[in-house]
Amino acid sequence: MQTDELGKFLREVMPRLNAEERIVALEIYKALAATGTISVAALSERTRLAPSRVEAIVSSQTGVFRDESGDVVGFWGLTAQPVSKHVLRINGQTRYAWCAWDCLFIPGILGLFTFSGTTRPLRSGRRRGSECASSASMRVLSSGA
Fold it and tell me: How much is the pLDDT for 91?
């Protein structure tokens, strides 16, 4: 598959977000990168959308994980929970991507240069990080593509 074919495929399978949904999604990513969680009330303040609208947007999306209080703790491939071997170091914080593809695109969505790595066992049983990606230039959310 050629690069342009891959790009076209990814654009076709990504959900189509309207302007409000893009704003909410980007704020969720920013919050998860910074603090690892965000409430609907905080999203409402950040986006200047009514809490009921934010809740409707968050609830309608797949790939959203919430804690017992309803705060978002995982979103479209990013979480502070150690759920995978795919590690992102974002502004000194350790975050986890659900798969290697997420390591490629989340830094670009956030507009950040990050270290991304996948831990793998060595023969001795210890683990080490190996670079899998750095900041991608894809701006899916910020450009509205």
Answer: 86
pLDDT at 123 over 70: no
Residues 86/79, Cβ–Cβ less than 8 Å = no
CATH number of 15-76: 1.10.10.10
Cα 136 from Cα 21, distance rounded (Å): 22
- Residue 141 has what pLDDT? 39
Ranges in the chain annotated CATH 1.10.10.10: 15-76
pLDDT for res 14: 72
Q: How much of the chain is helix, strand and coil, in % rounded to 5? A: 40, 25, 35
